[in-house]
Amino acid sequence: MDTNTRASGAHSATLGLASVMVASLPAALMTEAAPDRYTVEAVFTRRPEKDEVAEIVGTRTRDVLVSAGYPTVALAVADRRLVIADTNLEELRDGLAAVIADRLAAISTQIHARQDAAAILFEEAAMREHTRAAAVTALAESIAFEGSPTAANPRPGATDAPSSGNEDSGQIADWSSEGGHGRYARA
Fold this sequence. Notes:
By secondary structure, the protein is α+β, with helices and mostly antiparallel strands. It is built from 4 helices and 4 strands; from the N terminus they run E-E-H-H-E-E-H-H. The chain has a domain at 11-115: Gyrase A, domain 2 (2-Layer Sandwich), CATH 3.30.1360.
């Protein structure tokens, strides 16, 4: 199977974070006016897929953060950035970054497994369709429109008397009264 979709079994790299976007940090950091908690943006190692984004902002990720001791932290995705709200650099350095990295890796693994299962189902369905189409083709090709040696012998149950034509005329009259008689006028 040669396609440009992920159903081919090729996976993108595991989703991760490369670095913190320093430009997104509050200007007052490391001063007396610095906020205790703020939003930190980090750059993904690649653009997250739709399913990955849904998992990142989903309830399972929320539960992971809460159980790891970060009940106020919230995650959002903005293009190629992970927006980590209500945190600080120290909290990220001291463990939150590892929790987030582990969750992103788990999400990638889970989605890759789902993609693999879908690819297998797709390939099996394609093989079944290919087999079916080949069987139909073989059956159609087995039909020969040639005279047979038994052509002189009619089919069992067929009448031996030739048609007088009167029966045909009656049948044609019946069909004409059913409609469509104007399309094929008989002379």
